[in-house]
Amino acid sequence: MVQFLNPEGEFGVPKGLEAYGKYLDALTEADYLKFYRDMARMRRFDVEAHALQRQGQLGLWIPAIGQEAAQIGSGYGVRGNDHIFPSYREHGVAITHGIELMSILKMLRGVNHGGWNPEETRFHLYAIVLGTQTLHATGYAMGVAFDGKVGTGNKEEDLAVITYVGDGATAEGEVSESFLFAANNKSPLVYFCQNNQWAISSPSASQTTVPLFKRGAGFGVPGVRIDGNDVLASYAVTAKHMDDAREGSGPFFIEALTYRIGAHTSSDDPTKYRDQAEVDHWVARDPLKRFEKFLRRQGVGEDFFAEVEAAGEALATEIRDATFALTEPPLENMFNHVYSEPHPRIDEQFEWLKRYEASFGEGNE
Amino acid sequence: MSNIVELSIAKAITAGLRKALTDNEKVLVFGQDIAQLGGVFRVTEGLHAEFGQKRVFNSPIAEAGIVGTAIGLAMRGYRPVAEIQFDGFIFPAFNQITSQLAKLQNRSEGYMTMPVVIRVPYGGGIGAVEHHSESPEGYFARTAGLRVLTPSNPNDAYWMIQEAIASTDPVMFFEPKRRYWQKGPVNLDAPPQPTYQARVLREGTNVTLATYGPMVATALQAAELAAEEGTSIEVIDLRSLSPIDFGTIINSVKKTGRLVVAHEDSTNLSISSEISARITEEAFYHLEAPVLRVGGFDVPYPSAKLEEMFLPDADRILEAVDRALAY
């Protein structure tokens, strides 16, 4: 398992991992602070969103507490032109790629299904049906290769694709099909699997008898397991394999071993299927705390942590206010863009609904 | 002078694909066995040699993968034309078609278009083994976000495949496999009519007979037989199953007062169910008889030696015509 920071926040590049280590050599203190700021931002966002759900402001919340290192590290391992195909828990990856956090809350309030521009942000829409996004990522990566944007040596032009998938979703047949298509086409694609150890109530052992990072081998997709609670491992391993993919070495699978400290969603009750002792074990390995210990060892002072905490409180207030200010979506959103060219059935039904609604005009109610 | 050639439906689709591949370098053609072999029905024959491996290529035997990667390619700006080898093999891809392909434009609020064509040889009558003779078009015609086209003759086949590829919406393109070798004139200069419009193939005054795809030839045969007995049947080829051109059907019903709808698919919750309901809603006072449906029975598609009894033929259509006239 690739690890550079142990749970005490002590840094070291083990023998044999130098190829990853050189990505860390290039990091500056500003990068470290950025990683920490975003991990803390992701955590505070999560806590606030959970509260908003409990107060009835969101229909659902999908917590990602405990997965900050996996998401922020890998998110920053993805470069300028690369495309990202997330699953539905990648709020941290969204943060690293400039997605408005309110877009995620709007979606979970039921205002829309995402609303951001996937081509412009290069962060595609959340995929709720498990594993479907891995095939879209594969097709996209095949297209990138058809466009001649792989292995040209032009670092500004070449790009790779990353897709996020959970341990549970690896059981879907479509994920296996995606391995096959990606390997056959030598597609510039990296799978980043957050093994948070629970698929709702099913432990990852019920999804596989072979470690997940070995799942792709028979298809021609090599893999590696990393400590998903080590942000530096997550960053370096993602950055290296995205580089390799851009240079034409084909698909690769990263299994980031982490833990879902919270529930599957706000509708779930994990006390029914797992022991508190197990949760406590992982809370003690909190990725945010680990990176804080590292930064303090590096000499980062109290001022920085106080500043981050204050920024977190400001973020909480900001999203809380913005959530209360959200308006209902316009009726036309239901009918718009079902087709991009006119379709009489849709048009007729929208016209009918408008007439029907108008019939309740003032005085007629 | 028009540039008219005689082609089979299969070869008219080949010619349409060739034209689309020539006109737009973003068009890709792929599916199982479609490259060197040209597909099990030879519809893509010659295209791999002509356009090369980068434009026309074989896919692994994984239907969800074929459609899922087609979606990703469309996101990258390509116009994929994917073949599903047989109707009964489309269901592994059902999730990607109905929950992904059909919904992505709407859920992305129009930021993405989905110019994907899924070609499907469909229908029975070829004496095939199980899962090779089905009519799954109803599943897709009722799915919001998909368009569904089905040509019945070579000229439509040549033009409609190109129109499907040019559409920015996803199109399910159902090819009447037992009519693949039926020949007819193809006008290479001009499309026959707007894509989603039905066509009156034969004018008549007593009964309207609406159908599509492989049953069009059967309907024309029935109309011919009826004419010998003095019954005038108006035959409509629907061509598009999503949207359905109800205007053309209603105009005909206003004239005849009677409607029979025929297809190979089982009648339960089918294209004919929807047409029957809509015509009852919108042309009730023009009807002299209830709308009658002729189709397959509500059973799994039978083994080959029984399919003749499953598929509607001209006599079964005429039986329904007689019932409509008896009101």
Roughly what fraction of the amino acids of chain B lie in strands? 15-25%
Which architecture name of the largest domain in chain A does CATH use?
Answer: 3-Layer(aba) Sandwich
CATH class bucket of the largest domain in chain A: Alpha Beta
Give start-end ranges of low-pLDDT stretches of chain A: none
The CATH superfamily of the largest domain in chain B is identified as Thiamin diphosphate (ThDP)-binding fold, Pyr/PP domains
Largest sheet data of chain A: 5 strands, parallel
Average pLDDT metric of chain A: 96
Please name the fourth-level CATH homologous superfamily of the largest domain in chain A.
Thiamin diphosphate (ThDP)-binding fold, Pyr/PP domains
Count of individual helical segments of chain A: 13
- Report Rg of chain B: 19 Å
Category from helices, strands and their pairing of chain A:
alpha/beta
- Count the strands of chain B? 14
Outline of chain B, from the CA principal axes? globular
CATH fold-level label of the largest domain in chain A: Rossmann fold
Q: Write down the secondary-structure element order of chain A.
A: HHHEHHHHEHEEEEHEHHHH
Quickly count the helices of chain B: 12
The level 1 CATH classification of the largest domain in chain B is: Alpha Beta
Helix content of chain B: 25-40%
Q: Which class of secondary structure composition applies to the elements of chain B?
A: alpha/beta
